[in-house]
Design a protein that fits this description.
With 397 residues, the protein is mostly helical. The protein has one domain (18-393): Glycosyltransferase (Alpha/alpha barrel). It contains 14 helices and 8 strands. It has a 3-stranded antiparallel beta sheet. A hairpin with a 6-residue loop joins strand 6 (217-220) and strand 7. Helix 5 (112-127) packs antiparallel against helix 6 (130-144).
Length: 397
């Protein structure tokens, strides 16, 4: 009998959800910040909070067509999942539904995955509302219209074809493949799976330098499908490692392995991860571009701004990647790095606190354009909360 009780106790302990102390504290903090923001948004508005610029306390609002429109309702869904606050569920539903027209309109660009899967995708995962599923499936078909079989990728920015001189694909596009994978497995067209796989394979072969750092944009000949060039749009230079772009690669190829179990995606996810980790500063929060000027400190010259959003995206991806790799040392490395990144983001150095009603400080949106530099941005908040939820559900290593 004692032996049986011991076995039951060991089983219970081994299956117990594990999380460091800062996780619940940080999620509770995030919920309070979200409550502050909700109080600032007028009732029945169609505006969605996107960012708070440095030195300001006011959100910049956008409409449902903005590429970031899904992150705010997605954050609400995650926090509802955490604390079961019915108000958060109501608001998550309300802000998600603002994005419904995206499922009925021609594709404006590739960001439909960010917009719809972060909002309705999380909503359906949590509530199983059949209305949400219909919208997700319809939007996946809309996204697929941007696929060019000659190239083997989805066109990222139809409006920029003339500017770039051809079919453009950005590394961010990897994240939107999750919408296609999900739809193909949940009642959508099976061809969506093939499109997603081909896009990932083409990106893997053409989007990276020999050291596995990513270009932001690759331009292809629209008619022949041949690669023309690799350039940047939001990074420091065409040959630099733009921090958020590399984080999209880490997240994207990790997700592709999760969805396909193709070993080449797992191998590649580790390669793009390892070069990122190797070049991080000591606190594990990257500068906006790994090759930007003013890294490290130079006398009398301000530091280059950090990008907390890239750290949050990477932390979330690493928590998944740590469960997929076989090597025990790498499992531990990826898990501990993710935990340390989140621990740093959970300090007063990066949490907004009383500074504004966002969750995090110190993200960089489009540095070359001079916008959202050292700002609070909704996608940093989203991936931070997502990563915290993953860590909370983790059993540790």
């Amino acid at each position: 009998m004692k032996f049986l009780l011991s076995i039951l106790l060991i089983t219970a302990l081994s299956s117990k959800v594990w999380a460091p102390a800062f996780v619940d504290k940080s999620l509770n903090y995030a919920a309070k910040q979200v409550e502050k923001t909700l109080a600032l948004i007028p009732d029945n508005t169609k505006d969605i909070p996107r960012n708070i610029n440095q030195g300001s306390t006011k959100w910049r609002f956008v409409n449902f067509r903005d590429w970031t429109s899904g992150f705010w309702p997605g954050t609400l869904w995650y926090l509802y999942e955490y604390n079961h606050d019915s108000k958060l569920k109501t608001e998550a539903d309300r802000f998600s539904r603002l994005l419904t027209p995206l499922s009925n309109e021609p594709a404006f660009d590739h960001d439909l995955g960010f917009q719809i899967f972060c909002s309705f995708g999380n909503g359906y995962r949590i509530t199983k509302n059949p209305e949400y599923k219909k919208i997700i499936l319809k939007t996946a078909d809309v996204l697929a219209t941007l696929y060019n079989p000659k190239v083997g990728t989805i066109l990222s920015w139809p409006r920029e074809v003339k500017k770039f001189g051809g079919h453009n694909t950005i590394i961010d596009n990897m994240i939107n493949l999750e919408l296609l994978f999900w739809a193909s497995k949940n009642g959508g067209n099976k061809k969506l799976y093939d499109i997603a796989v081909k896009h990932a394979e083409t990106t893997m072969h053409n989007h990276f330098r020999p050291d596995f750092t990513s270009y932001h944009v690759v331009v292809y000949d629209t008619l022949t499908g041949k690669k023309r060039s690799g350039v940047t749009h939001q990074g420091y230079a065409d040959n630099s490692m733009w921090a958020r772009g590399q984080s999209w690669a880490i997240y994207g190829f990790t997700m592709c392995f999760k969805e396909t179990k193709k070993p080449e995606f797992l191998d590649f996810a580790q390669k793009v991860t390892d070069v990122y980790l190797k070049n991080l500063p000591a606190d594990l929060i990257p500068y906006w571009d790994f090759n930007a000027p003013n890294i490290p400190n130079a006398p009398n010259i301000p530091n280059a701004p950090r990008d907390a959003s890239a750290a949050a995206v990477t932390a979330s991806a690493l928590l998944d990647l740590s469960t997929f790799v076989k090597d025990p040392a790498k499992k531990t490395l990826y898990f501990e790095k993710a935990k340390a990144m989140l621990a740093e983001l959970s300090t007063p150095r990066y949490q907004s606190g009383a500074t504004n009603s966002a969750i995090l400080l110190h993200s960089t949106g489009h540095h070359p354009n001079g916008t959202e530099i050292d700002a609070s941005i909704n996608y940093a908040d989203y991936y931070y909360v997502e990563a915290l939820m993953k860590l909370k559900k983790s059993k540790g290593h």
